[in-house]
Amino acid sequence: MILSSYKLRVKGRASWVSGGGVFSSKLFSNCRLSNNSGDYGSAAGLSILNNCLVISNKTGNAVYSCTLYNCLVISNTAVYAVRGSKLYNCTVANNSGYGLYYKNTSATNCIVYFNKLGNYVVLTDPMAYCCTTPPQTNWATGDGNITNEPSFVNTAAGDFQLNRNSPCINAGTNGVWTATGFDLAGNPRIDKASGLVDIGCYEYQLPYRGTILLLQ
């Protein structure tokens, strides 16, 4: 994972209330939010995050009352990684507390997996086209959710892209945000071959296949 591509880095800030990292109704794109602290949104509160990395934030809730697109939320030590937020094509994984928490939290095309205390708790809104476990009691037939492990490339090395055998490939639902959007690595969200979006913050990229010409 190349972190130097992030245009804005917010690190080591603290707030006793909200938004230890960023706190605003503004849009933050291509940001790395790390090592911040605060009770309600140690990384971000009341903000819109697009293509952001939220990592290693502490206390309370890492993300509070935000809208997230194509974001990777990992390795936070907050009790709840995400609370009261709306997530689209995000990956929430390897956090020491719960992944998602509380009412008004919704997720579409998201991977919520491998969170230590549980992937979610006290959710009133059903997920749609997400990869998580266990199944919610209010999941409806045809909602597109799966419980299989997402099959990341190498979580120990911080690589949460999808392996070629991942059940999340082409398993999402196309939305307004996917039509012209890009994943966390800057790739188009819609696969040209299938016309479908993947679940999670990364779109799987097929290995290059071409013709090799040997000139003598």
Describe this structure in words.
The chain is mainly beta. It has one domain. The chain is built from 1 helix and 21 strands. The strands form 4 sheets. A 7-stranded parallel β-sheet has the order 1-5-8-11-14-17-19, with no helix packed on it. The longest helix has 4 residues, at 176-179. The radius of gyration is 17 Å and the shape is globular.
Rg, please? 17 Å
Strand order of the largest sheet: 1-5-8-11-14-17-19
Number of helices: 1
Q: Biggest sheet, in brief?
A: 7 strands, parallel
Q: From N to C, what is the helix and strand string? A: EEEEEEEEEEEEEEEEEEEEEH
Strand segment count: 21
Please state the structural category. mainly beta
Q: What is the CA–CA distance across the termini?
A: 38 Å
Tell me the quaternary state. single chain
Number of domains: 1
**Low-pLDDT windows of residues:** 1-8, 12-17
Strand content: 35-45%
Report the helical percentage.
under 10%
Quick one: overall form?
Answer: globular
Mean pLDDT: 87
